[in-house]
Write a sequence for this structure.
């Protein structure tokens, strides 16, 4: 609630945040829509955050900075009237969800270098809405076997960031991306 009694969330300007990567998903969407930040500027800020932090967190299975920036430039070129509701929002994808332009390897040597020919429905919907699919996050092998990546909880090294969706959870918790896809099948 703001000081006028309205429940409408007020968007902080960047002076309220020291870096763009600190913005929430809803904040950055509003800033992109208002023309206050470009998709390229926000993506560059996230990539800087990842470079600074991921050696410790280890959230990423696949990240191609050049592809991210190329996609960000293309998104910035789309006229405002043609933009989708998630235009420019970076979203990470767990490495068991198909992406046609990135490897899907299930954290398994059996699928090393595997590039699907199509996107999963969830990824296709996000792209259609204008999201920037940022990269692939770590998972346990086949999202089922407990042998997995050495992803660390970015806030407490004595705690786990979870199991098979650990990369997605850690990337969001560490402000490396504002949103990520994960999965849950075991309860």
């Amino acid at each position: 609630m703001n000081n006028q009694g309205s429940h409408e969330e007020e968007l902080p300007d960047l002076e309220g945040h020291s870096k763009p990567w600190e913005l929430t998903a809803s904040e950055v969407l509003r800033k992109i829509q208002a023309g206050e930040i470009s998709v390229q500027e926000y993506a560059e800020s996230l990539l800087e955050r990842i470079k600074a932090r991921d050696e410790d967190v280890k959230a990423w299975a696949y990240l191609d900075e050049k592809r991210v920036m190329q996609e960000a430039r293309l998104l910035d070129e789309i006229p405002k009237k043609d933009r989708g509701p998630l235009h420019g929002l970076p979203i990470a994808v767990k490495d068991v969800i198909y992406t046609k332009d990135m490897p899907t390897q299930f954290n398994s040597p059996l699928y090393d270098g595997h590039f699907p020919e199509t996107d999963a429905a969830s990824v296709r919907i996000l792209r259609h809405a204008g999201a920037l699919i940022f990269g692939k996050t770590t998972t346990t092998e086949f999202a089922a076997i407990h042998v997995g990546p050495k992803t660390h909880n970015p806030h407490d090294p004595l705690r786990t960031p979870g199991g098979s969706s650990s990369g997605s959870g850690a990337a969001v918790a560490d402000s490396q991306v504002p949103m990520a896809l994960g999965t849950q099948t075991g309860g």
About this structure: The longest helix spans residues 39-57. Confidence is low (pLDDT under 50) at residues 1-12. The chain has one domain: 23-181.
